């Protein structure tokens, strides 16, 4: 690794000592960029790595709201506008108790390169709050969203920053957020927020986009390996939008998802999570409070309380839940099971140690989340395009564009890795492609 990268990482550790998630992603990205940095000494002269690892703007604010009993609550809100060199800031909002500045910076940094990979003109950002929507009424969530947007609105807009949804922020929350934005601004700038409902400018296939995109990326991997998805078993984690969309599209492509999971444990469905009834039940689990145990009982599957699915044998493993859900212990189980394809879907679901271990296993293909899960933000950007044109595309049009984007992300990553003599290293390839476009734009625009 270059001395320049070493120095920047050491400086980051000193400046951001209490931000483990951000330091983890910075290390994962920068350590894979050595061939590019060595080929471009001008980057060091322009302090490019120092600039690209520092957010352009970090906004932190108080959110005060009332519950149904009239009691006031105070949460902390964030918007980290990490890099706008290639377009307006773009990235989701996350409402969850674990949200901190470190989490927002990690997600914003990843988003910068993910958005670059899509080839669409969007910069990287992330935001959210430590507010927990679970157990709250619709009225409470509406009041919180209105209070959150009352501060955020002044920092966003179609040509500035366009937030979308993420963990804890779905169609309901985005509707409340956009309604407050429109109320304050007095204009119908519907591209200021994406992931909206169809009647007011949303895009078809947005809920399915991340899972569909991950499946298309996997399809490209299989083509490269002269393999096929048909008949392959897939171990999924999570049961939210991402796992749901992946289960649908993987089934359409001939694979058989056999697990879903949550905080209470996991389900092994040996018949496959492959029918419309099962897909609908996954939606019901989020909207009605049904549990994984209920799924198991209804469909004759096995429920394993308090456990993760990584001990289940499958041809393909796709973690779809949250960051760092796969550490060394889980990675070793995955290897012992003879898994050939490890496809990250959730943001940074693997610890750096476990990721390096898996990448070192001969014959295993490892694909990074910033490439695999880019389908969500791709369709968000396509939603912005539809809003700008005041048009609504068909599901077939959106799906075709999504398929093309995900295939190109894989192919470009593979080509970049090959160019620098790294073989079929999709992790390094994605980092290089995502970084190079942003770096070129930053260099062209001068030092600021």
Summarize the structure.
Helix content is 48%, strand content 15%. The protein has 448 residues and is of the alpha/beta class.
Strand content: 15-25%
Instruction: Estimate the global geometry from the Cα principal axes.
Output: globular
C-alpha Rg (nearest Å): 21 Å
Fourth-level CATH superfamily of one domain: NAD(P)-binding Rossmann-like Domain
Low-confidence sequence ranges: none
CATH architecture of one domain: 3-Layer(aba) Sandwich
Oligomer: single chain
| Count of individual beta strands | 12
Strand order in the sheet with the most strands: 9-8-7-6-10-11-12
Instruction: Kindly state the percentage of residues in helix.
Output: 40-55%
Quickly count the helices. 18
| SS content category | alpha/beta
Q: Output the helix-strand order.
A: HHHHHEEEHEHEHHEHEEHHEEHEHEHHHH
Mean pLDDT: 97
Q: What's the end-to-end separation, in Å? A: 27 Å
Largest sheet: 7 strands, mixed
**What's the level 1 CATH class of one domain?**
Alpha Beta
CATH topology of one domain: Rossmann fold
